[in-house]
Amino acid sequence: MEQSRAETEEAGMSTTSDNRSTITVFERSPDRGRGLARDMRVRWVLEEVGQPYDVQPVSFSQMREPAYRALQPFGQIPTYQDGDLVLFESGAIVLHIAERHVGLLPGDASARSRAIVWMFAALSTVEPPIVDREMIGYFEREEGGNARRIALADDRVRLRLGDLSRRLGDTAWLDGAFSAGDLMMVDVLRRLGGSDLLGEFPNLTAYVARGEARPAFGRAFEAQRALFIAASPGG
Ligand SMILES: N[C@@H](CCC(=O)N[C@@H](CS)C(=O)NCC(=O)O)C(=O)O
Fold first, then answer.
1. Whose CA is nearest to atom 5 of ligand 1?
2. How far are the Cα atoms of 37, 55, 64, 156, 200 from residue 68, in angstroms, in the given order?
3. What is the pLDDT of residue 140?
4. pTM over 0.70
5. Is the pLDDT of residue 212 over 50?
6. Where in the chain are the domains?
7. What is the C-alpha separation between 165 and 160, in angstroms, rounded?
8. What DSSP letter does each residue of 98-164 carry, written as one string?
9. Which residues form the GST C-terminal domain (predicted)?
10. Residue of the nearest CA to atom 17 in ligand 1?
11. Which CATH superfamily is domain 5-103+217-231 in?
12. Is 71 in the pocket of ligand 1 (CB under 6 A)?
């Protein structure tokens, strides 16, 4: 996992950079500062690699404007801007940053690919059923509920968590040292927000707690929370 500074510089990566990137975030996050929006994973990776960044808060109406769509075609947060480079999709942003700094992707090529596999697993296998379940929570519980759909959504999440829990077993991280794959997986699991579902899997609960205990996570969390509080009436 460890790479020397010389190896890093030879590979065109940097340990730090003078460039200060900017990320777009919700002006006032609907999660009320719980750090569940997808800017959190970008803030976290930037904190892990020690890169200072600026935030550009955007409102829902700004996100619909053509100027914002030029940055993010789907009108979502986050985006990442570094000089002339504009990126969207939180997974691509995290990968971009992790690839250019030391510490979140192993130096060994195979181990590096395996860490990237876990990023994709988090985004394309674990996150979708969690988001589907959230959507039912938002829209259907309020309308009197649809107990069967909710139970099915819970089961789809439970299936993924069960498999993940078995793979993690009693290890600290998914494949050796903490990596961008763990960062992404922990961030995705946090969307379950301490629900009973996550609680059914003690090793995953502990895994998320380990991620949240990282100082970089703490700094990222406090930054987004401070923004929410400042944007709130009386904040
Ligand atoms: N796949 C995108 C999803 C981005 C996304 O869904 N962002 C949410 C906030 S977490 C958003 O902007 N929602 C408002 C909307 O979709 O209108 C990514 O990972 O960046």
1. 76
2. 18, 14, 7, 34, 41
3. 64
4. yes
5. yes
6. 5-103+217-231, 109-214
7. 8
8. HHHSSSSS-SSHHHHHHHHHHHHIIIIIIHHHHHHHHHHHHHTTTTT--HHHHHHHHHHHHHHHHHH
9. 108-233
10. 76
11. Glutaredoxin (3.40.30.10)
12. no
Cβ-based neighbours of 73, under 8 Å, separated by 6 or more:
88
Both tokens of residue 90? 């939180």
38 CA: nearest ligand 1 atom: 10
Looking at per-residue confidence, does 2 or 224 come out higher?
224
From CA 145, how far away is CA 184, in angstroms rounded? 31
Res 203: pLDDT: 98
CB 72 less than 6 A from any atom of ligand 1: no
Ligand 1 test: best mutation among 76, 134, 190, 191, most atoms within 8 Å of CB?
A: 76
Q: Is the domain defined by 109-214 classed in CATH 1.10.287.3610?
A: no
